[in-house]
Amino acid sequence: MANDDLEAQDKDKIPLTPEGMAAEWATMSDVVSDESGEQEANIDRLMNQEEIDTMLGFSIGDDGKGGRNGIQAIVDSGSVTYERLPMLEIIFERLVRLLSTSLRNLFSDNVEVTLEGIRSVRFGDYINSISLPAMLAVFKAEEWDNFGLVTIEAALTYSVLDTMLGGKRGQAAARVDGRPFTSIEMSLLRRVIGVVLGDAEAAFRPLSPVNFKVDRIESNPRFVSISRPANAAIRVELRFDMEGRGGSLHLLLPYATIEPIRELLLESFMGEKLGRDPIWENHLATEVWQADVAVKCVLHECTMPLKRVMKLEIGDTLMFDARPDSVASLRCGEFIVSEGRIGRVDDKIAVQVVSPLRRSKTTMAAFDTSHLTSASWPGRPAP
Fold first, then answer.
1. pLDDT of residue 147
2. How far apart are CA 229 and CA 122, in angstroms?
3. What is the pLDDT of residues 71-89, one digit of tens each?
4. pLDDT in tens, 115-151
5. Contact in structure between 249 and 114 (CB atoms under 8 Å)
6. 3-class state of residue 363 by DSSP
7. How far is CA 343 from each of CA 217, 284, 330, 347, rounded to the nearest angstrom?
8. What domains can you pick out in the chain, each with its CATH number?
9. Is 169 left (phi over 0), alpha (psi -120 to 50) or beta?
10. What whole-number distance in Å separates Cα of residue 168 and Cα of residue 208?
11. How far, in Å, CA of 131 to CA of 151, rounded?
């Protein structure tokens, strides 16, 4: 009897979800009894650990595929799924090496450049997180026909100005708030931005040649709307250190900007494609030249009704529209490779080739791009 009551209670038990917890709490009485049996009102019910985990969003379904809930769902709602682009990491590591040399020549001082990280953010959240004053440069990637953003934080801005104007080493740059940047300061910072974009072009060149051209420079984040606030973008943070002075520079590339080269960025290494392996090509060419192929000599072809074919018997004669000096075709599979005349050498039938071999007009470059052509034009035959 007790077992039946427990089974009935298990069937009537509400699942432990935010909706189930709310329904369970709604059915509970607001008045509870203490140990002496007296009724007490307005006493809060204590939650167990499982209910606390469900409310905070730390519990997931039994299959491991359930979505987050509670506070964790609110926190994760603003996150952006990051698609790992291995080639992009290699490109910016190359950019760090190039910048270390270029900035050393520009500042005539030792500059250490480090890659702090690459992460995916929403454009609107990033713009709202920029601390003022800051230098914002909008640039256009001409080959990709879209825009990007370079952000120089305040600490790096004043450190660069102090270094280029002959400030003392080892001292923090003085920060002047409450005024806009002067034309001299803007000109000096534009030179630094030009060096960064120039090295970025060199870093992208082995993968996809591109020209980065500065479109405008702003000091107010509201005037750099190059994408919608909800769109995802890749933020690259570079740290500059100049003997105790320095700061961070951010390079922001919306996903729409790098979409033309997305397939290339997904590769694990440069040149990840079929072909262009000289060792394998030489080995394959050697084996092809040594391969044996069957060649057929076709003197004549004719078409006849199936009724006549079914009535053929031993001894029947088929008349071909061909003379003894007619040219026969030499075929390898379904392809005609040459033509010749049939003759006799001693006691064997021979064929004398009368036309040169018909070589294929498909080049190696056309063969490498044949799968791309057929994929982009459905129904169109490959070259």
1. 92
2. 7
3. 655 555 554 555 677 888 8
4. 888 888 888 888 888 887 888 899 998 888 889 999 9
5. no
6. coil
7. 84, 36, 14, 11
8. 2-76 (no CATH), 86-265 (3.40.1550.10), 286-376 (2.30.330.10)
9. beta
10. 41
11. 10
